[in-house]
Amino acid sequence: MNEIENMTKAEWQVMRIIWTLGESTSKQVIDVLEKKTDWKQATIKTLIVRLHEKEFLKADVSSRPYVYHPEISEDDAIDQTVNNLFDNLCCMKKGEAIGDLIGSSDISKNEIQGLIEKLENKKRNAPEQVKCDCLEESL
């Protein structure tokens, strides 16, 4: 399977629909995306074909229309994406980035409580200061 970083923003939109539905025909995806975007049917079909070629989707070809199933879970895709992004950040900037993300995201009270608990656990062993990891120590 290809790395999740090879999935385009448009392909993510297709995958979000299929993850939500659990499985989907191309018509179901087209119906949703035609209401949300100005994309044409051919564009959406092309995105589905690309996702299949990249092995993010599996097609059940035993009947018509084909039914598409995700080959990667939404949670795994999110984890890979977030970890790939944070691997590119300076260690000294990750906390600030997490704070910015929290500030700009719609999250439920239950999710907030879960974050508080994770932060309290993390705080127990956290260093006073995180060292920059942008340069090699030999420099």
UniProtKB/TrEMBL annotation:
GO biological process assignments: negative regulation of DNA-templated transcription
Family membership: Belongs to the BlaI transcriptional regulatory family.
Gene3D superfamilies in the cross-refs: Winged helix-like DNA-binding domain superfamily/Winged helix DNA-binding domain
Protein's organism: Companilactobacillus allii
InterPro entries per record: BlaI_family, Cu_transp_CopY/TcrY, WH-like_DNA-bd_sf, WH_DNA-bd_sf
A single MF term (Gene Ontology): glycosyltransferase activity
Keywords: DNA-binding, Glycosyltransferase, Transcription, Transcription regulation, Transferase
Keyword Transcription: yes
Domain of life assignment: Bacteria
Record bears the keyword Nucleus: no
Protein name listed in UniProt: Uracil phosphoribosyltransferase
